[in-house]
Amino acid sequence: MTLSLSEIVNTACTTTKKEDKVKFLKQHNSVELRNILILMYDKISFELSLPSAVPPYTPSEISESHGMLYREARKLKYFIKDHPEAKGLTQLRKEQLFIQMLETVDKEDAELLVKMIQRKPLKGLTAATINEAFGPIIKTGKKEKE
Q: Using CA atoms, how far apart are residues 138 and 144, in angstroms rounded to an integer?
């Protein structure tokens, strides 16, 4: 069974050695994972058009929602400020789409998305570690230590 994006991130966060984190992230590399991490960590290149507060939503209880974030992640572009494909979407519609995404995906993946809009780095996973795993995908404006 494929690991969900939240399972990948949580495992990377709890792995103790940096080189093991990098290896694990490389093994589970995907466009969806990289995009979520970029939007969570890179405050220089991207600004989200969503409020950072947790929106009211009902977490999914459906077991088949495991792994749905891989499919739903294609909608992330709609939540990036001034993204060409989000043109024409009202702020209300963007927020509705985000809530629908939260209610569609697995409960743990929804929590990962909430952390993404709050743009707070995850404990145990630095931008430097992510960049070591995937190349320089996150601009931080400073050097980071593990």
A: 11
Is there a contact between 25 and 133 (Cβ–Cβ < 8 Å)? yes
Q: What are the angstrom distances between the C-alpha of 65 and each of 6, 113, 145?
A: 12, 14, 36
* CB contact burial 101-131 (16+ within 10 A = b; e otherwise): bbebbbebbbbbbbbbbeeebbeebbbbbbb
Q: How far is CA 91 from each of CA 5, 34, 80, 81, 86, rounded to the nearest angstrom?
A: 26, 25, 11, 10, 10
CB 60 within 8 A of CB 103: yes
d(CA 109, CA 138): 21
Nearest CA to 103 out of 90, 91, 113, 117 is that of 113
Main-chain phi, psi angles of 80, to 5 degrees: -95, 125
Per-residue pLDDT tens digits for 2-23? 899 999 999 999 999 999 999 9
Q: Quick check: 22 and 126 in contact, CB under 8 A?
A: no
